What we know:
Blueprint: E1 5-6, E2 12-13, E3 43-44, H1 50-73, H2 85-100, E4 103-119, E5 122-135, E6 140-154, E7 157-164, E8 190-191, E9 194-199, E10 204-212, E11 223-231, E12 240-248, E13 253-262, E14 268-269, E15 279-288, E16 291-298, E17 304-310, E18 318-323, E19 340-350, E20 353-356, E21 363-368, E22 374-378, E23 388-392
Parallel strand pairs: 8-21
Antiparallel strand pairs: 1-2, 3-4, 4-5, 5-6, 6-7, 6-13, 9-18, 9-21, 10-15, 10-19, 11-12, 11-18, 12-13, 13-14, 15-16, 16-17, 19-20, 19-23, 21-22, 22-23
Amino acid sequence: MKFLLRGVLALVLLVSIGVVVVDRLGDVAPATLPAVSEPAAPRVVAAQDQDVNAAIQQVIQRSNDEQVQAIAARDPALMSDTVTSDHFQELQQINQDLLDHDVKSISLLRIEWGDVSINGTRAMATTFETWRTTYGDGRTEQSRDQNDYVLVLDQGQWKIQANDHPTTASQPPAERPAPTVPGIPDNDNTSHNWSGYAATGGRYTAVTGTWTVPEFKPDGAFGIDAAWVGIGGVRSRDLIQAGTEQTVTGSGSTQYEAWVEMLPRASRHVALTVHPGDSVTVSISEQSLNDWLIAFQNNTTGQTYQETVAYTSSHSSAEWVQEAPSAGRGGVLPLSNFGTVQFSDGSAVKDGQTVTIAGAGARPITMLSAANQALAVPSALNDDGASFSVARTDAPATTTAGPSRGRGRRGG
């Protein structure tokens, strides 16, 4: 069952935490006391008891489906037939809170079944549910939570009386740090927060790239990563960039978003919805001097977003980067365990000519931790000169001390 998500930039899951405890009486009464009849011990539904097991699973599944429909239709009455009257009142408030906090839709991606136990007309069931929440501004959040359901038999029908989340803890979203100076050391193919390719030595007026948004394990440790394309920033203080970012909260959820940033201004969300596994193409192109078109396309869903902005650029470099965002003077944030991110169809306009990443003379950049261990390593360019991958190593993600050369999306 989906509960309230709260936060500053991304809302996190709000739950009531509790554990259903079942007391058992001892098997033997003291010899000096009269024999005491014992209550029936709760029993785990065996595989052959398909009717009861199926009935309980069906009501939980149907209740979840009805909550999804109730959010979509803005009609809480759709949830009333699978829950008790008291729990229905709770669900009404939960759904209203979700809507009040700009939740556009929710969807149940996966349900895993745990134990089911029955004691007369009362039952308990455990599930592990993976939910996706989509907000009005395009951000998404994916979480996996344990649900401990209590059901009661009401006139021959199982109904949900309560739903607790014993393992869920609130985790505030990562704050967007203040921008700092970008840059990669000259003649050095390493950075403390960039990995990918960067091209210099010309005038760059456009850049394009495509990548696949990574997916994370629900129990992953806190970490953050961003994929983007940009112009400027290698050896200059200016940088216009756009991409996607993933924040693993460390409490069972991952937040996904698309963003635009133009130094020294802070980054901002854009209204493009992205999910794990989506293919996203981002391009930045100068339409006239210092007037730029930024365009996103979610190749998986077909959704697009574009805007025109004014920005004074040095036109000094073009980048295709997987990054560990930084917290300004707080240093680079822990890089998430994103696995491998595939970049493709990378190109730029250099000195008026459209070229591939290879044609631009771009060089690879390896990301190092504070201990100078390789954190993320780019592959060689493929034969097309326009595609490569960035692989996360097993090195621990340490936070670098002091200011980095990039706030959230700059190399250094």
